[in-house]
Amino acid sequence: MVTLGSFTFPEKRTFVQVRTRNVLSRVRKEINLYTLLIRYSELEQLEADLEALEGQLEKFDRREATLSLHEGRYYTGWRRDFQRFVESRHRAASVHLLILTDDRFERSIEEHQENVTLTASGQSVVVSQSGNGLAFAKFLLSATGSLVQPQISDGPRSLVFQETLEAGDTLEIDSDRRTAVRNGTESVLSLMSGDFPLLSPGETTLTYTDCAGSSHSGTLQITYRDLWV
Question: Given this model, what pLDDT does residue 171 score?
């Protein structure tokens, strides 16, 4: 079932072509979508559906709606072309929609979250994602005591904060946007070293470590979506 926001395309009269392209220095998906809107008893019903489609397309362009080609997954992006041909006498219309996605990834609609209470350096948690690509994660580290050079690792990749988080401080790390923010407002990307952790298909062991003098006390929240390429 193909949907654009709240609009559902007719299952047996919708055809989709997807290819990967390098556009604006980024690898993206180019999606051609063709559909037939037929079997309306009244022309007004057809016009209402076309209006609803255009409304959802406008929301899609504003990143307020998503495109789903597979159940439970979505793309974000914008339209490159939109053509509609209405045959009023037969109360029918054909639609061609060309979409360019923000990146090449298809993400799960469901967002997963793991919450870990930190009590020691070297503490690990296993997370699982069902996609076929390396998934991005967001990490929210909240200190309840001093954390000296806290580090998060997925095994091959480790990211270290080169200073100390004091009790009450937070550190938000976004592997997708490649950002690091202290206490909600202060960018501390320049104080980070290493590589952003990623989640492999299946299970990934994430390990938290810090340095001598740390209280090892805090919480770590991990948020992510399954990802397909």
Answer: 98
Q: How confident is the model at residue 68 (pLDDT cuts 50, 70, 90)?
A: very high
Other Cβ atoms closer than 10 A to 64: 10
CA neighbor of 134 nearest in space, from 205, 194, 201: 201
- Domains annotated for the chain, with CATH where assigned, are 3-104 (2.40.30), 110-228 (2.60.120.860)
Total residue length of the chain = 229
Q: How would DSSP label each residue in 31-64?
A: EEEEEEE---SSHHHHHHHHHHHHHHHHHHHTTS
The residues near 131 (Cβ < 8 Å, ≥ 6 apart) are 108, 201, 226, 227, 228
Number of C-beta neighbours around residue 215 at 10 A: 17
Q: Is the dihedral of CA 150, 152, 153, 157 positive or negative?
A: negative
* Rounded-to-integer distance, Cα 91 and Cα 147, Å: 67
Q: CA distances (Å), 13 to each of 36, 52, 89, in order? A: 6, 18, 20
The pLDDT tens digits for 79-128 are 999 999 999 999 999 999 999 999 999 999 999 999 999 999 999 999 99
**3-state class (DSSP) for residue 109:** coil
Q: Where are the alpha helices (DSSP H) in the chain?
A: 43-61
Residue 146 buriedness (CB in 10 A; 0-12 / 13-18 / 19+): middle
d(Cα 165, Cα 220) in Å, to the nearest integer? 13
